[in-house]
Amino acid sequence: MRCLIVGCGYVGLSLGAELVRLGHEVFGLRRSAMAESELKAAGIQSLIADITKPDKLAGLPVGFDWVVNCVASSGGSVEDYRQIYLQGTRHLLEWLAPSPPKKFVYTSSTSVYGQTDGSQVKETSPTGPVTETAKVLLETEQVLLGTGGSRGRSPHPTVPGVILRVAGIYGPERGHGFKQFLNNKARLEGDGSRFLNMIHRDDVIGCIIAALKNGRPGEIYNAVDDEPVSQVNYFQWLAEELGKDLPPSVPENSDENRKRGVTSKRVLNRKLKMELGYQFKYPNFRKGYTAEILRLERAGELHVTPDER
Ligand SMILES: NC(=O)c1ccc[n+]([C@@H]2O[C@H](COP(=O)([O-])OP(=O)(O)OC[C@H]3O[C@@H](n4cnc5c(N)ncnc54)[C@H](OP(=O)(O)O)[C@@H]3O)[C@@H](O)[C@H]2O)c1
Questions:
Q1: With a threshold of 0.90, does the pTM exceed it?
Q2: Domain range for 128
Q3: I need a labelling partner for 174 at 20 to 30 A (CA). Which of 13, 28, 55, 157 fits?
Q4: Angstrom distance (rounded) from CA 201 to CA 225
Q5: Torsions phi, psi for 8 (to 5 deg)
């Protein structure tokens, strides 16, 4: 297949390398020309453009069978989100419309679910994003599926779109809570009963490839591992593995948490496993973090800061 990966960062770069390994022709799009050597080393042909600027897209080659949009705004303001996710997706769809791909996969986020009661969440559960940024991600989904979007635009899908609602990504060099824990910066929120939903980077890649092959256009799939875990159980496991104490507790309703729009829900992956036939390499965080701890140990890079409490 002739594949285009829009946004060749943490996920996109490894995805591209895997697609190359599987024998596909892979193009990777990002803004920075400095990234060209990185893409080339992975066997990916680089396209340098900014998807917020439609005139830059117009000059690129077309005719892709599979397109994956996995750009990220790397934090950023709500306006950045609107530009990169929402407008960027609109521009991609307009650009691709004359020769639409067979499949277009977009990596949305489980943050579009706003549940705070620890309930189980599947794809048909109500969405209700808590933060303005997550609202933009939901609007982007609607634009891709042709089910809405602001200003009454795009009532019809222009490509066979498939949405993956991806949980918190961790893996080599990634994992915010884990790094915080190693550096004694982690905090338990209240009694730590809030649920975390995670997925290893390699499984994100596996889910994307499964969605490209088997995803039904117009469908949404939760891309999350088998085992939502409470924050306290997550830290308890890390504490035992790394010989540290549990992090100190802070009040649950801190300003910081309110700002982050913290939710608590157990996101289910049954639909993804049933329909896409995907089997997880790391079905729970223990498997994934065991691999990461081993990798760090072997590289001599596991630095556990002693806790002086
Ligand atoms: N991280 C998580 O826990 C998480 C959770 C749920 C969903 N997701 C989604 O998963 C996907 C992959 O995330 P990631 O962690 O791999 O992101 P990442 O490492 O930050 O990579 C994002 C890539 O997008 C490119 N990019 C940003 N703005 C662009 C623009 N305007 N035009 C073209 N390229 C642009 C960046 O390259 P340049 O800077 O060179 O342009 C970079 O290569 C994203 O869609 C993200 O929203 C992530």
A1: yes
A2: 2-174+200-225+266-281
A3: 28
A4: 11
A5: -100, 70
> Distance from the CA of 31 to the center of ligand 1, in angstroms?
11
Buried b or exposed e, range 197-207, using 16+ CB within 10 angstroms: bbbbbbbbbbb
For the stretch 265-291, what's the b/e string if a residue is b when 16 or more beta carbons lie within 10 angstroms of its beta carbon?
bbbbbeebbeebebebebbbbbbbbeb
Asked whether residue 92 is domain-assigned, the answer is yes
| 10-23 pLDDT, tens digit each | 999 999 999 999 99
What's the pLDDT at 2?
98
Question: Mean per-residue pLDDT for 75-96?
Answer: 95
Instruction: Tell me the CATH number at 15.
Output: 3.40.50.720
Q: How far is the CA of 74 from the centre of ligand 1 (A)?
A: 6
Distance 89 CA to ligand 1 centre (A): 13
CA of residue 140 to ligand 1 center, whole Å: 15
Please check whether residue 56 lies inside any domain of the structure: yes
Q: How much is the average pLDDT of 246-273?
A: 85
Q: What is the count of structural domains for the chain?
A: 1
Are the beta carbons of 196 and 277 closer than 8 angstroms?
no
Q: Which residues pair with 29 in a beta bridge?
A: 6, 47
Q: What is the Cα Rg of the chain in Å?
A: 20
Q: What is the pLDDT of residues 42-61, one digit of tens each?
A: 999 999 999 999 999 999 99
Is 48 touching ligand 1 by the criterion CB < 6 Å? no
54 lines ligand 1 (CB under 6 A): no
